[in-house]
Design goal:
Elements (H helix, E strand, L loop, with lengths): L15 H15 L7 E6 L5 E3 L4 E3 L4 E7 L5 E7 L10 H10 L4 E5 L4 E5 L7 E5 L5 H11 L6 H8 L18 H15 L4 E6 L5 H13 L12 E5 L2 H16 L4 E3 L11 E5 H4 L19 E5 L13 H6 L4 E6 L4 E2 L4 E2 H5 L4 E3 L1 H6 L6 E8 H5 L29 E3 H17 L8 E6 L2 H14 L1 H6 L4 E3 L5 H12 L8 E4 L12 E7 L5 H8 L14 E5 L17 E8 L5 E7 L22 E3 L2 E3 L17 H12 L2 E3 L6 E9 L6 E4 L1 H10 L5 H9 L1 H13 L7 H4 L7 H9 L8 H11 L1 H5 L3 H17 L20 H6 L6 H14 L3
Parallel strand pairs: 5-6, 9-14, 9-17, 10-12, 10-13, 11-12, 13-14, 18-24, 19-29, 20-22, 20-23, 21-22, 23-24, 25-31
Antiparallel strand pairs: 1-4, 2-3, 4-5, 6-7, 7-8, 15-16, 18-30, 25-26, 27-28, 30-31
Helix pairs in contact: 4-5, 5-6, 6-7, 13-14, 19-23, 20-28
Length: about 850
């Protein structure tokens, strides 16, 4: 770059783009880089969804000025350019950041006059140095192969040079291209294979595209026949549930490799001559001992075995399914999971079998990159969970059985003790939340996790009975989807997963839908089942993390009735730290005070983490066999679950002695609302008052303007809709804040502008009758009768009732029809004007 120094002082006035054109690109060309090897404005991520006072905004995506590729679509270095007059040091940190994101060990910063190389090839001792010229493509490619550990293997360069496949198309007909982290994962896996590693683990958060990763990995391997004796490899894609094999087979692999070369093993004779096989463990182990179906394939028949959700049964060292992997041990086995498991109690260790992951992409990474939905969290406490439930001496359940005297707590509910009102209250709360957060009249799709199938059935019934209007419009508004529901449940699941499907809106399950199912439209994940397993918790939360642009879903809500979300506080969870604020209530469940608390609220009776170490599945006996909560056989469908005979007997005995009670006083004793802080990374819990305060101030009105708009029925409806979209149910606000005697508009004003006095509805009525008696007397007797009834309605229910539409409900219906009542005011429109005038006089005084 010696010629650069001959430039005049005018060069210092150049923009960054001019600097690149006149100096950076020529310098790269001088080092041997062809135009096709230089990718400009290389998009890395989507830009984080950052919370604002008006929902979310998309942060600026990371875009590298240049990425260098020796072969197409395989980045090997980043170049960050700054304008000529700036110091080259201004680009160093940016170049380092982009390189680390892309999994690269070499990055360059330049201002057209100088070049700085950032070398991460030795992670313990990274080096930053000034250089005169960019390295050549051959030199940098050699370094890349060396840092991948494949420079001494002839196969390494070939595997890392194979092309990606772009057959799959998006809805706009553009090619589906792997994201940056998927490319890094593929590169790491190919390098491990080239190093002759036979067990490879890839860990990616739920919703980040493990299937796309697997497809691209297989596609690239198909283009490297020398790695498999001069032929294309044979691949086995292995999982434990139909939905985990059917979806990738139908939507991905058949589209790329064709139906003739993609085959699902369904039993019977072992078919051959295909490229990619899909199979369930359960299918492969069919047959008498020693004659199982998988034995019909020679041990070395498959070259690659992809194990989806590898944290499940196959990782158990003494599990029956492990024998399938051991049979195909000559193959390279690639484990995919979001949640590796290391559980000594169940002899399950993903790391022990597959080794440490060659690549990890966490939930936190996905949210920060804008590829996953950020979330809000609500913790709802019920009195029987906090205080426990103790039956009276000699009390009997609804079936006439005497209940043993004991203090029952959360670990007993739905297993030993069923309190019907507990489920019914949770159902009502959930429906209130869905109605309050509906967008354009459409309730958000919701996934509810219950303790077991029986609990899921009761929750389904409670939701059904609490939503008569929704059920009348949508007969399948709520569905239970568990293993027992067979093909009907499968059909409901397919509809639930569709973004353009209106029903079911609510899917109730126990464990069936906790893993391996893409459900982008889900806006609410409801936790009504206790969890002690971090992998299970991450999987459940992952049901809501997928973005769904088709319906504008950019975030989701977690509603936790059982404090399962305390696992957010565990260091093993890669989500944000939490600050806790609790709403305190009286014995009627009304919020009366709030307090900041750290750490999370103390648990109710027997709700400690250790107590949840008991089996998470509930078991029932059918036709002589033992089945888990989703109807799968313990002996096969969930290998690795507890199968000890004494343990099963204990669980079955407990199930037979489950007591069901009715008539228990159950109410909400507290609610916590979490929102993302402005940094988009951390969650903060806020009181209802704080939430309302921020939302009202967003309206950009002063108190007088707010009252004036509220007084007019039409503008009041607009305000109420705006607040509802911000998750404030104005008509429930007096109840939520424990001030039922105060009108919503007065609460809105007092919470938003602290220090303004709160006036009760009785005080407003007294003032109105004293100051505006002549206003009422200005109307004829029959019109005055309507206005007096309006004042009574205000006293009972508040200002939202001050509108002509209220004339359609008692006591007005006893006075006559709406047309007759409005005619009492004379000309058309006079009734509207009179009621709005009444509201203005009643509500605008301070």
């Amino acid at each position: 770059m010696q010629y650069i120094w001959s430039m005049t002082f005018g060069s210092y006035q150049m923009s960054e783009d001019e600097t690149c054109k006149r100096f950076v690109l020529p310098a790269l060309a001088a080092s041997g880089w062809a135009a096709r090897q230089i990718r400009s404005q290389y998009g890395i991520n989507n830009g984080q969804l950052v919370p604002t006072k008006r929902r979310h905004r998309k942060g600026r995506p990371l875009v590298a000025d240049y990425v260098l590729e020796y072969v197409a679509d395989v980045p090997i270095a980043v170049v960050e350019a700054k304008r000529y007059r700036l110091s080259v040091e201004n680009g160093v940190e940016q170049a380092r950041r982009y390189a680390r994101k892309l999994g690269l060990r070499f990055a360059y910063a330049t201002n057209g006059r100088e070049i700085v190389e950032i070398d991460f090839s030795d992670l313990k001792r990274p080096v930053i140095r000034d250089i005169q010229d960019f390295p050549s493509p051959q030199e940098l490619w050699g370094r890349f192969l060396q840092e991948q550990g494949v420079s001494d293997t002839p196969l390494g360069e070939q595997l890392l040079s194979t092309p990606y496949d772009y057959t799959l198309r998006n809805s706009d007909s553009t090619s589906q291209r792997p994201r940056y982290y998927q490319r890094v994962a593929v590169t790491r896996a190919l390098a491990a294979l080239a190093r002759d590693e036979r067990r490879i683990l890839l860990v990616l958060a739920t919703g980040t595209g493990k299937t796309m990763l697997a497809l691209q990995l297989v596609a690239r391997l198909m283009n490297a026949p020398e790695a498999f004796g001069g032929r294309k490899p044979r691949v086995l894609y292995l999982a434990d549930r139909n939905m985990l094999v059917d979806d990738p087979k139908d939507r991905y692999f058949q589209e790329v490799f064709g139906k003739d070369d993609v085959h699902k093993i369904t039993g019977g004779e072992a078919k051959r001559g295909r490229k990619v096989y899909f199979a369930l463990y359960q299918t492969l182990e069919q047959g008498a001992p020693g004659e199982e179906l998988y034995r019909q394939y020679p041990e070395d028949y498959f070259d690659i075995v992809i194990v989806d959700e590898c944290h499940r049964g196959s990782a158990a060292s003494d599990g029956r399914w492990r024998r399938i992997l051991q049979h195909f041990s000559p193959a390279v086995q690639i484990g995919l999971t979001a949640t590796p498991v290391a559980d000594d109690r169940r002899k399950t260790d993903t790391y022990e079998y597959f080794g440490n992951p060659v690549f990890t992409y966490s939930l936190k990474d996905g949210i920060e990159d804008g590829f996953l939905s950020p979330y809000r969290l609500r913790r709802v406490r019920l009195n029987v969970d906090v205080e426990g439930y103790r039956p009276q001496p000699g009390e009997k359940d609804i079936y006439g059985r005497e209940i043993p005297e004991d203090l029952y707590g959360p670990k007993d509910y739905e297993r030993v003790m069923v309190i019907l009102e507990r489920t019914e209250l949770a159902a009502r709360y959930l429906l209130d939340h869905l109605r309050a957060t509906a967008e354009e009249g459409r309730l958000g799709k919701t996934l509810v996790f219950c303790e077991n199938n029986d609990h899921a059935a009761r929750m389904r019934t409670a939701l059904f009975n609490s939503a008569p209007e929704e059920v009348a419009a949508l007969p399948d508004f709520v569905r239970r989807i568990v293993g027992d529901d067979g093909s009907h449940g499968g059909e409901a699941l397919e509809e639930f997963r569709k973004a353009d499907s209106n029903e079911p809106v609510i899917a109730v399950t126990s464990k069936l839908l906790s893993t391996g199912v893409d459900m982008p439209p889900v806006r609410n994940v409801v936790l009504f089942r206790r969890m002690a397993s971090m992998p299970e918790f991450k999987q459940v939360i992952g049901r809501g993390t997928r973005l769904c642009p088709e319906i504008g879903k950019e975030s989701f809500d977690i509603i936790d009735f059982v404090e399962a979300s305390r696992l957010f506080d565990d260091p093993a969870f890669d989500g944000p730290p939490l600050k806790v604020v609790r709403d305190w209530t009286d014995d009627q469940g009304e919020v009366v005070d709030s307090e900041d608390l750290t750490p999370a609220p103390e648990s109710g009776p027997d709700a400690d983490v250790e107590s949840a170490a008991e089996p998470q599945a509930d078991y029932t006996q059918q036709d002589g066999g033992v089945f888990d909560a989703d109807g799968d056989s313990v002996a096969g469908a969930q290998d690795g679950d507890i199968t000890d005979d004494e343990e099963i007997d204990r669980i079955l005995s407990r199930s037979r002695n489950r007591f069901t009670v009715k008539g228990v006083d159950v109410y909400k004793v507290g609610e916590l609302r979490y929102i993302l802080k402005d940094d988009g990374k951390r969650l903060q819990l806020v009181t209802v008052q704080q939430w309302v305060h921020d939302r009202v101030l967003e309206l950009d009105l002063d108190p007088a303007q707010l009252r004036t708009q509220w007084a007019q029925a039409k503008s009041r409806a607009v305000l109420m809709a705006a607040l509802k979209s911000a998750q404030i149910d104005v008509e429930r606000l007096p109840e939520e804040l424990g001030m039922r005697e105060v009108d919503p508009v007065d609460l809105l004003v007092s919470v938003a502008w602290e220090g303004l006095a709160v006036v009760s509805r009785d005080e407003r009525l007294t003032w109105f009758r004293r100051e505006h008696a002549e206003f009422l007397e200005s109307f004829g007797p029959r019109a005055k009768e309507v206005l007096e009834a309006m004042l009574l309605k205000f006293e009972e229910s508040g200002s939202p009732q001050l509108k002509v539409e209220t004339l359609r409900v008692p006591p007005f219906t006893e006075m006559g029809r709406v047309a007759e009542l409005t005619s009492r005011f004379g000309e058309p429109g006079k009734a509207h004007q009179a009621i709005d005038d009444l509201a203005a006089r009643l509500l605008t005084a301070v």
